[in-house]
Amino acid sequence: MTGKSRLIIFFIILLLNLVVAVIYFLWNKIRDEEVQNQNDVASFIIMILCPVIGPLFYLLAYVWYRVFLSEPVDLEDVIFSKERVKTAVRAEEEQERNIVSIEEAIEITNHKDLRQLMMNVVRGDIREYLASLSLALDSEDTETAHYAASVLQDALNDFRVYVDQQKKLAMEDGEHQADYIENLVEYMNPILEQRVFNQMEQSNFVCLMDDISEILFQRFPERLSSTKYETLCKRLLEVREYSKCEKWCERAKLYFPNSLATYTCQLKLYFNAGRKDKFFEVVEALKQSTVVVDSETLELLRVFR
Predict the structure, then answer these.
(1) Closest CA to 272 of 229, 244, 242, 305
(2) What gap in Å lies between CA 87 and CA 76, rounded to an integer?
(3) Is 193 exposed, middle or buried (0-12, 13-18, 19+ CB in 10 A)?
(4) N or C: which end of the chain has fewer CB within 10 A?
(5) Exposed / middle / buried, residue 266 (Cβ in 10 Å: 0-12, 13-18, 19+)
């Protein structure tokens, strides 16, 4: 075969390759008329730059897809209903046997395991575990006690700084004042209910909650729910601020007369304050009301009486 013949064959191959590439490009455009395929141009260029090999690659890929990957999906067992389905999952009995409260773990674990427990606790949000961390201060393991003291001190300092910053915003008269007050109360309550501060500091923070909530009551009374009244009453009772607690109890009685929390707060207040006459007045009022009493409240009445 002469060199001229080889050149002719080469150009014929290029021409046929170009025709195949154009046909492939146009076929893709027609097939993807509604959704344009961004890879069409890239495929066309590859087939032009790689004669014979490029078209063969796409041909083999198409054949592979049609033979092995184009089987219809069996959707017989698939449910498209929007109804909620509660899936029963078998309990991990072995894992649950090994789960204990932090308080119990502090009492029974050895020093090595206790240190590991402390590390696992502080990796997450430790604000809900401050009371448990305070128990570790009395640990026989000095390293654990020192670590717990350090972490606890840092957390309480962060709390003090944040409260001081947000207090200024909550006291300022502005369009977002109610939001600042609500956010601050919601931030303070989970910490204060653990009672990790000394009595004086605990009392100061609770009184701050009372002060900013008073602003909320005077300016935005509709933002105070029954739960918020109950929260304030509980914190005030803990620091024996009986007069302030009674103030919120009376307000809850006015705004939420049919709430069980309104009655339980009054019962706890008058019992702790030693006012038996008021206590039994609330008991009688609860009996005459249509409020449904839960088992916890019944137990509370048994204990108090």
Answers:
(1) 242
(2) 19
(3) middle
(4) N
(5) buried
